[in-house]
Amino acid sequence: MSKPAPAQSSIIDSEVEKFSALAAQWWDPDGKFHTLHKFNPVRLGYIRERASAHFNIAPDAAKPFSDLRVLDIGCGGGLLCEPMTRLGADVVGADASERNIGTARAHADALGLAIDYRATTAEELAAAGEEFDIVLNMEVVEHVADVSAFIGSCAAMVRPGGLMFVATLNRTLKSFALAIVGAEYVLGWLPRGTHNWEQFVTPGELSRALRDAGLDVQDTSGVRYNPLADAWQRTGDTGVNYLMLGARPAQH
Question: What angle do CA 88, 241, 34 make, to 5 degrees?
């Protein structure tokens, strides 16, 4: 039987070009992605905590994800792929930007990390019948043309009993003030034009997209920057950044 044709791509070419232009800076902790380097520990902590509980993994296991296949969609330079690999996961890192994938592959090769990096899209992977225990969908949905369609393609790759983690920005006045005006124009944490506020996604919109794609929403957690600790922390406030966890029911 022939494989189904990929769904229409949700890629926005200008968004791919924007991050491709910054590809060489992914692994510079003081460069254009330094905020993401700061954000990484809270993302990893949330993934490890929730996945360990869901898959009944000992929280203190040295390689808790050794039996899990993981997709990081929109992986950029591999900032999540590498630690997930060190935690034992079999990782596929996918990004629409060839330059991002080149940077990610070179960095992993230099460290001797075996990561399956692919310059491709969620729609192409789903059409190829790829399946994963965990799909990481982190800081991507605010950069796609059709959130529901993109979530649908990603969710189609979540195996029964599997998880999808989503991190994104809420579309609120608070997020406009902090994530656009503050982070890009006042503090200079991000290059100007990194985000388009109109493309931000509310928790209600995201949860509906997950449910429409057959996933149950398990958790929603806010994330905020604590300037005193110089660190990102989880919070109950989803007004700016937030994490959402969806699970595909196990087959009976």
Answer: 65
